[in-house]
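Aim 2 progress update. The chain analyzed this quarter is reproduced below.
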Amino acid sequence: MNNAQTNPWIARSLKSVWHPCTQMKQHETVPLVPVHRGQGAWLFDTDGKRYLDAISSWWVNLFGHANPRINAALKAQLDQLEHAMLAGFTHEPVVELSERLSALTGQALGHCFYASDGASAVEIALKMSFHAWRNAGKSDKQEFVCLRGSYHGETIGALAVTDVALFRDAYGPLLRNAHVIASPDARLARDGETAAEVAQWAANRLENLLQQRAGNIAAIIVEPLVQCATGFAMHDSAYLQMLRALCDRYQVHLIADEIAVGCGRTGTFFACEQAGIWPDFVCLSKGISGGYLPLSLVMTRDDIYQTFYSADVTRGFLHSHSYTGNPLACRAALATLDIFEQDDVLAANRERATRITQALQPLAAHPKVRHFRQRGMIWAFDAVIEDPAEAASFSRRFFTSALEHELLLRPIGNTVYLMPPFILSDDEISLLASRTQAVFEQVMQA
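Predicted structure tokens:
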């Protein structure tokens, strides 16, 4: 008897809910997990079984489930203002959040435009770039550049700058093609080659393109330091410095998609800080609300904002949705920023990351592991699998085994990654490391 027969939540969900990024037929054999509650780093199902949320519920939950400080902030906001339209109105949470985020960039990015999800933020940045060039009298700049293997979302505009065949191929006829350039993925290094040299090689390929098409290119979009959904490809920060210089030289906007890698995930609040540069646009989502409510935003420079500032309505940025700048979501984000400041989270994470890396060393040394890598609070490694059939089923088998070991882990292809919340205790770190290794051993021996 399967779970769908014994748990009514699962049976009802399979009948009425179309789950994301899912071939629903697979749930005939891979059970849904009926989550009942969350507490700290743990999720609990309806039978009371617990799962360490080692991927922060799709990379969003920074400070644990049911965090008391974020809960208290939301409860107070509920009694004051739950929502008001942002067209023609404003409110304290959205103003304070914008000011505090701008201050974190040293005022380099002084204007925030709000949406609800990461793909929408990418759409906004693409539209802003195109429209800013048009307002500046350079209407030929309509093309975009992305990295090989990049992922920036699954709406039509965001999918156009995504280079993952699984997501793109079915919708190809709907998309406007972007230029796809070499990734600076450090795993591409040949014998004796450094990650910085791979970055230089990739930047040279971009310059070749810009020499030919700069007059038609509006922007390049990149996930700084880590390309997450393509298998956690990590690159040297020098690549971002070279991108910034090339974009300045050839008059092309630089869009930093920090949806997954921002909010402290890579070790600094903004990943771009590690390269000592600021882009023209930053896209934030996921962790910005602590994993509580849908919220995304695009931050941009004053000179770009000024290209839209006019009495002519057609020069204004024409984009909106009903819940833009929702007060509850902004309040969750403010509570999240408070925790960063009050707990000195970035410093604490440096120590926590060191302990996690040390705990994972036996796994890093495993003969069937390649390219063990870490950046901030992200860890990843690639499983060496020779049998194509086993490789095709690796992710599903690993996910299922991990649940049996009280872990929520969801590999991408043959890449296992960990993106835990920023609150793990030493006991939880030990459990995460030992059981990840046990799952890996079990799956590789199956």
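The chain is about 40% helix and 15% strand. The longest strand covers residues 369-375. These observations will guide the mutagenesis experiments scheduled for the next reporting period.
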